[in-house]
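Reposting from the mailing list since nobody answered there.

I have sequence plus structure tokens for a pair of proteins and want to know whether others read the tokens the same way I do. The first protein:
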Amino acid sequence: MRMETARPAVAERQSNLALRALIVGGGIGGLAAAIALRRVGIEATVFEKAPQIAEVGAGLSLWSNAMVGLRRLGLEAAALEAGSVIERVQMFLSTGERLASMNVVALGRKAGAPSICLRRAALQRLLLDAALGDDPKSVQTGRECTGFEAGASEVTALFGDGSRESGDVLIGADGINSVVRARLFGEARLRFAGYLAWRGIAEGMASQLPGREPFVSVAPGAHAGCFDCGEQKVYWFLTANSRAGSRAGFLGNQGEVIERIRGWRVPLQRFVEATEEHAILRNDIVDRRPRRVWSAGRVTLLGDAVHATTPNLGQGACQAIEDAVVLADSLRRGASVGAGLRDYEARRRRRANFVVRQSYRMGTFTQLANPVGVWLREALGSTSWAQKRTVRLFEHLLQADLPELPDQAAPHRSRGS
């Protein structure tokens, strides 16, 4: 599924109007949006509720579509240096039987960029440095947005300390529990996928993967994977069917993971053992049902705030980066802020919602525990039909015609409190 390229501009007036964008949320999507908007001449300020933007998380994949997005932001080379290129992914049963493999290099040639795995913290640092530029006030921490007031000519973000910031457009990039989304469309429950995930980074373990290739493995009710992620580190994950809200028992997260994979004939345990207990993340896997409407007036949503997805396709961060590039292009081309936001939504909605649906379905398939379902998965997984379907899916995902962003670098100016 290729994203529609930008239509010829009716009027390239937004970049000349000294627009100011208020971005709520200093994660990957919010920082990428700030960089993209400034490249097209729009002033952007990020407001993050945490006291500091800390280096958190485990690893993530940046598939070719996201690397093209980073190219548009001027950050592709830096990301390549920080991560490890994914050349081929091997797929196994937990018994060690090989199911299939996917030639990621070939997919990348068609998409026009390689795919990599890197630490989430490394990507966040790259984006933060670029978003800050030479103005430390462009990313403000300790600013918890509690709501907004939208008018005909401007929008005002409201903060927990009583302060206010006014601008021309407000972008909710504040994650799966978005305050901006809740104020726009009301509270909505998260969708629990039926399983949890453990994730970690093993230090000093680079190139210890078999054949130096990443692998994924499936077992009844479980799914795992290991990827080199740069800096002599390996990212690993394990999912397991579970009730929502489960907590580690007396074995701790590391012990529970080791116990669950005992007897697996894939080299996962060595990486788990090389990860400190405190560094293992444990999370319920949740997403949000796709939305058709993302914006209202001068307010819109981006990334997990509007299309939070399960991690099965590794597209969460990738889709947020795509959002950022298209949003900047739509605002610079639109005859008004409202027109720009409608264009952004129209160009992104179908693709992002496709990812949410496909990822949820993929998770249902990989987490099969019923003996009949497991047998069918194992019987079909190695067939040429199944492998062609997987390749076609990733061809759709990795190819995205993202618009060029002419670097007009918005001058920094002071406005608001």
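The second protein, same order (residues first, tokens after):
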Amino acid sequence: MKTCHACKTPWDGAPGSQPGRNETCSGCGADLHVCLNCRFYDPASANECRSSTAERVRDKDKRNFCDEFELKAQGSDGRGLKDSGDERKKQWDDLFK
């Protein structure tokens, strides 16, 4: 399920489509076409984006013109991992047992 990064309200767009640049969340009004909602967003990557062809975007929570934007699925950090502090803590603890 694809959701808003700010409030987790499900996006009700057509299957296979992406939110438009001016589309906002029906729950909180946040912009949807933003880096924080994109499957390529990765704080550990250069310019915080795993796409090598995307231009740098300064405000990750503001709408932008990136042509590579793809709304990510809920609970995913873009790499298929759960985006959960509890899961990361468990992985960290398991690493240093």
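Reply #1 (J.P.):
I read it the same way you do. The helical segments are 85-95.
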